[in-house]
Predict the structure of C-terminal processing peptidase.
Amino acid sequence: MVTFSVFLNEHVQVLLSIRRPAKRSRGRIDYSTFSTEQSTIKYTSKQSLNSDHFYDVVLLKLWRLNKRFVSRRVFFVHKPESFSWWRKLINGIQKVIQYKDRLSNPASFISIHIIVGVMLYMTFSAAVTKTPSWALSEENLIFLEAWRTIDRAYIDKSFNGQSWFRYRENALRNEPMNTREETYAAIRKMVATLDDPFTRFLEPKKLKSLRSGTKNTLTGVGLSIGYPKEKDKSSSGLVVVSAAPGGPANRAGILSGDLIVAIDDKTTESMEIYDAAERLQRERVLLNPVKSQVCKTGLGDDGPLVGYIKLTSFNQNASGAVREAIETLRRNNVNSFILDLRDNSGGLFPEGVEIAKIWLEKGVIVYICDSRGVRDIYDTDGSNSVASSEPLIVLVNKGTASASEILAGALKDNKRAVLVGEPTYGKGKIQSVFELSDGSGLAVTVARYETPAHTDINKVGIIPDYPLPVSFPKDEDGLCGCIQDSASACYLNRVQLLSR
C-alpha cells in the first residue's frame, strides 16, 4: 500500500492510500445529460369481453384512476374490508354485460365502456368522501416527486423485481418524513432497493458539484472514481477510473486502475462515491478539454504531417473545441489525425454524439435501448462533418469510458478510424440527472446503448484493432517522437496506419 500526498497548494493536501492490484479493477459512475420521454401504458384488445377479461379492464381503469389521483397529490388508503365492497361493485357491473353475443357489436362494446366509466366515476367519487385520507406534507411531496422521477425514467420497469407502487404506499405510511434529512434518508433507502450503483440520490450540494464537472472548471484533485467491478470480490473501496492530465492526482503519480482504500486516513470500504467525491473537493482546476499539436512523420521536411488531438473530457465545450483544433491543424497542412481518448472518462452524452458527427460522413452513431429493445437511434447525414476523409487513429485504454466509448465505437464500426491501445472501460449505461423542486436531484439509469454494430459493451469494453507499441508515452511531446522516429520501440506507424 502506498500513501500519496496530493498537494493542492502550500496549505492544503489530501492523503490517498492507494493499493495497486495485480489486475486492474473496473467500476465507475459517470453521468450524461440524456433526456428521456415519459412512456405511456396503452391497453388494446380485440377479444370478446368475457368474465376474466372484464376484470382486467376494470382493474386497469382503477389503476389509471388511482394514478391520476396520486398525480394530483392526493393519496387514498383503503381499508382491507373495502375490497369485498369493490368486488360487489364489479359483480354488479358484470350483470350489465351478461349477454356475450351483444359484445361482438363494436357499438355495444363502446357503450359498455361508457357505462363502466360512469359507474366507476360516480362510485369512486362517493367512496372518496368515506375513505380515510390525509393531506400530504411538503416532505411527503418531495418523496413522491423522487418516486415519480424514477417511475418514469428508470430503465428496469420491474424495479429490481418489486412492486414500485406498493413501495410508495408503504413508505408514505411507515417512513418518518418530518424533517428534510429524514426525507432524504427515505429517498436514499428507496433508491437502494434498485440495487443499481449508477442510480443515486444527490443532495443539493452534491448536485451542484456534479454539474460543475460538466462545465469548463473542475473542483477536486482531478480524479474520476468509481466502484470495483462486481466479480472482483477481493477488491474493496473505490477504484481510479482516470486521472485528469495536469491535475493534482496526475502530478502525484496516481494511475488508472489504482484502488483508493482511504482518504485522509478514513477507510473507503463502505464509503459512498459521492461522499468520497465531496472529501476530494479542494482545488478549482481550469479544464480545457482539448490539446493539439502538429507532429512530423520522419519522412523529411516535406513529408506528411500528423495532427494530434488530445480530448480529456466531454464537457459542454468539447465539440466546439475539437472542431476548432481540427481547423487550426488544417491550416498547418496536416494530412492525417490522431485522436487520443486515453483516460477520458466521459461526460455529456450529447457532446459525444456531436464529436462523432465531426468525423463521420454518414452512418449510425449509437443505438439507445431500454428493456424492450432499441428505443432511439442517433445518426448523421454528414451535414456537420468537418474531417471525414483523412486517415484517423484513435488511442484508447482502460480509462476510456462512457461518452468516449460511444465515440470510439461509432468511429470503429463505421470503419472511419483504426483503434489502437487496450480494451476500454466498458460502461454501457446512460444516466440522466433530474433536479427536484428543493434543489436536490437524482442520477437515474435511463437506458443502455449499443454501438452501430449492435455490440453491448457494458462490463466488456471496446476491443481495439491493434495494441499500442511498447512504452508508448502519454505526453504530447513524447508521442510525436513515436510517430517520427521509425527506429524507436514505440514507433506507431509500423503498419502504415497513417498513410492514405
Remarks:
- Residues 106-130 form the longest helix (25 residues).
- Residues 112 and 173 are 37 Å apart (CA to CA).
